[in-house]
Amino acid sequence: xxxxxxxxxxxxxxxxxxxxxxxxxxxxxxxxxxxxxxxxxxxxxxxxxxxxxxxxxxxxxxxxxxxxxxxxxxxxxxxxxxxxxxxxxxxxxxxxxxxxxxxxxxxxxxxxxxxxxxxxxxxxxxxxxxxxxxxxxxxxxxxxxxxxxxxxxxxxxxxxxxxxxx
Length: 166
Known about the structure:
Blueprint: H1 12-16, H2 29-34, E1 44-47, E2 51-55, E3 65-69, H3 81-102, E4 106-111, E5 127-132, H4 139-142, H5 153-165
């Protein structure tokens, strides 16, 4: 049986440089991203006074975004009250934008807190928000251990940014 090949060359920049070049002197990619303007090239979608939203560079599925406090904190309980309010208002705002942009059948909202909790970057709190559809997990994911994304990150940025702005 011949080996099947699946090309996703547009993802090369994320494989070779997971931070997209955004690392500050302290080494926290999320702190560096917090300083960037909302633009397609940065992946940053929206920024408030205490919170910002960015595309996940390694998305689980289309529309996968991260909500983060601007201040470098690791735990929910480290957020001060205004940060906490804006952080969760940001989560709600993202859910509304993803629903408008994608009309999903469901939504995953989650936090991997600490290294033992599965956080890839446990030093900077971040929440995941992603739209879901019935049947969006298929044989490629389960057997092939491969995710197939039907759109580029640039396309995702335009859809979600447009929905956040309206």
